[in-house]
Q: What sequence folds into this?
């Protein structure tokens, strides 16, 4: 059941608890209030995070298809607020709220997020729509103890003005707050069936006798050295020959793991993160419309490759593919691309048009609530774009900014990268306001030679404070080739200085996507995005490793991580006739600790004995053996211990 439908069916009263109960809970302390607010856990959140079994998002793909229908509404209204880049902190209260006061781009299914005071200090919260009237709802506390969301039991009406008000206890007593925002007219993206993958040429797709359902793209290593990177390469190939899905391979090109996805479902941004005290795999999965963003959800999987959580965007949105970062405090940020009707005549576009508003949300992973929500339309002017709104329409919204990175930083700021304004933005994390702009049409910092980026991706703050960024250079191409770039963006001096530039010896022009990762010992791992290459550069800027998949394969980002995989299922086995005897094929999708394989054989399933041992050789190992009636394989680690064994099959 949809969270809002669930809440609408509830008999729980809308307003926050009566003042007498508030005072009792304040006297009892935060523990009692937290218990009351979190009693319904995930069921009440606008973001659902559910324990999930293994498998792909076939059901989610169907849901996305049903939701993509053309909106037929009134002539588009203004979607930009009267004043840009205002603070989300309410005067006198210290509370940071979203939707932003004065904004005109809120979702009809938005919750009202309030940060800056424990939930038990927030009382008499009431929400009223100018058309829909008083809204009942539930005040739900964040598990971090620093705020709460008012989650309405029913959605708001497009175009209406909403007033949110209440009172908050602070050190000086009881303070009153009240503010307004406007609901947008959503413009859902029409579902378009995905085109067929490119036909494979000989050698471009891998196949395995023991894993006949796997057909990943082949990986060709063209540059290698004695200092090959340590770890495995994580990618999400699509558009080229072979299967689509999250994929891990060794630096020698051998497959480690792949989860092939059905047609129309794609993956992006596979990486290793920490969640709930353990290392996990995370990736986005869903539908990619022709407009070039994502409509789906984030997957968190354990080292057995079993999804243990699915993170969905809040406020009625679907999660975008561009970024997902888990923080130690149990929160995460993810991106959303919200397409809404908008009058673009002031910026040279049609009066009845639509715009793509890039949003990022900070989620409470335990409760599923939206702690804060930031909209580009509230802070970045539409005319900052290098794209033109002239041809925009309800069918093709104007993607004026296209934020592709959200990097919360330890100093209380957040770094954004926006492709279509060719700019990096530094925000005050608490207020949401832009405090510095590097690049673009109107930079606020002094741009030193070599620092201007064009349509860049993956801006990340490094431990030394510098910023790494993948500078695409186009499209349309401003630079002769794409590059990995390290910048010193100094906010005290308000300067932007080039530190390092890395380019491929055979110049590549990557029109989109791409990433840069700092490795141990000063090396750099570069995924070239729309170009199917993966490279490693040493600290002196020399390329010491290079591999590629067959064109036109793309991978939105790529990473190099040390990873230990222990699949939940058994190893796989196949047997084929050979001269003399038989050939046994052994593999185990996702296993990383196999050193050797042992073959058992016998005249019956109950009488198998070891007959052969062979070192692991790539994803699939072929082992010549004598003829027998039944066979089984055992995966061995470097000490000879059995990691797992296959089913017994007839030979």
A:
């Amino acid at each position: 059941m949809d969270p809002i439908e669930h809440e609408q069916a509830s008999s729980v009263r809308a307003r926050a608890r009566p003042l007498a109960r508030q005072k009792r809970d304040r006297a009892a302390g935060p523990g009692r209030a937290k218990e009351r607010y979190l009693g319904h856990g995930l069921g009440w959140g606008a973001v659902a995070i559910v324990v999930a079994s293994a498998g792909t998002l076939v059901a989610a793909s169907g849901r996305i298809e049903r939701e993509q229908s053309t909106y037929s509404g009134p002539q588009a209204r203004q979607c930009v607020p009267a004043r840009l880049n205002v603070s989300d902190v309410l005067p006198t209260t210290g509370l940071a709220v979203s939707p932003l006061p004065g904004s005109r781009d809120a979702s009809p299914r938005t919750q009202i997020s309030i940060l800056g005071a424990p939930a038990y200090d927030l009382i008499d919260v009431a929400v009223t729509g100018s058309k829909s009237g008083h809204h009942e709802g539930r005040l739900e506390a964040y598990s971090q103890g620093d705020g709460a969301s008012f989650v309405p039991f029913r959605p708001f009406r497009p175009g209406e003005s909403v007033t949110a008000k209440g009172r908050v206890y602070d050190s000086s007593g009881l303070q009153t707050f009240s503010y307004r925002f406007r609901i947008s007219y959503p413009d859902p993206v029409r579902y378009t069936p995905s085109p067929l993958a490119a036909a494979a040429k000989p050698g471009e797709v891998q196949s395995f006798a023991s894993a006949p359902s796997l057909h990943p793209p082949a990986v060709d290593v063209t540059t290698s050295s004695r200092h090959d990177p340590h770890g495995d390469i994580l990618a999400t190939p699509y558009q080229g020959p072979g299967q689509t899905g999250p994929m891990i391979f060794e630096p020698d090109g051998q497959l480690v793991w792949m989860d092939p996805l059905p047609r129309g479902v794609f993956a992006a941004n596979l990486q290793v993160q920490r969640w709930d005290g353990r290392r996990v795999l995370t990736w986005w999965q869903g539908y990619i419309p022709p407009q070039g963003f994502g409509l789906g959800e984030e997957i968190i999987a354990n080292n057995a490759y079993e999804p243990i959580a699915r993170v969905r965007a809040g406020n009625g949105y679907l999660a975008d593919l561009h970024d997902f970062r888990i923080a130690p405090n149990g929160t995460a940020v993810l991106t959303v691309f919200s397409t809404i009707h908008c009058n673009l005549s002031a910026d040279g576009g049609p009066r009845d048009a639509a715009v793509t508003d890039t949003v990022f949300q900070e989620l409470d992973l335990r409760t599923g609530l939206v702690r804060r929500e930031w909209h580009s339309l509230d802070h970045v002017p539409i005319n900052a774009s290098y794209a033109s709104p002239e041809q925009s329409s309800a069918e093709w919204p104007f993607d004026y900014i296209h934020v592709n990175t959200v990097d919360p930083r330890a100093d209380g700021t957040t770094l954004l990268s926006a492709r279509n304004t060719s700019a990096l933005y530094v925000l005050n994390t608490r207020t949401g306001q832009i405090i510095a702009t590097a690049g673009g049409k109107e930079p606020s910092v002094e741009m030193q030679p070599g620092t201007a980026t064009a349509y860049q991706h993956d801006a990340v703050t490094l431990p030394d404070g510098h910023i790494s960024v993948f500078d695409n250079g186009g499209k349309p191409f401003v630079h002769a080739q794409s590059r990995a770039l390290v910048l010193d963006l100094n906010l005290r001096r308000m300067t932007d200085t080039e530190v390092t530039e890395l380019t491929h010896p055979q110049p590549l022009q990557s029109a989109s996507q791409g990433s840069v990762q700092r490795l141990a010992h000063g090396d750099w791992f570069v995924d070239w995005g729309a170009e199917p290459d993966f490279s490693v550069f040493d600290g002196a800027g020399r390329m010491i490793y290079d591999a590629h998949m067959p064109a036109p394969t793309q991978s939105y980002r790529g990473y190099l991580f040390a990873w230990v995989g222990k699949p939940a299922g058994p190893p796989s086995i196949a047997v084929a006739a050979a001269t003399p005897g038989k050939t046994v094929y052994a593999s185990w999708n996702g296993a990383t600790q196999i050193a050797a394989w042992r073959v058992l054989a016998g005249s019956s399933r109950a009488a198998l004995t070891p007959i052969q041992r062979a070192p692991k050789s790539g994803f699939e190992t072929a082992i010549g053996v004598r003829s027998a009636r039944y066979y089984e394989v055992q995966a061995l680690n470097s000490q000879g211990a059995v990691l797992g064994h296959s089913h017994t099959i007839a030979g």
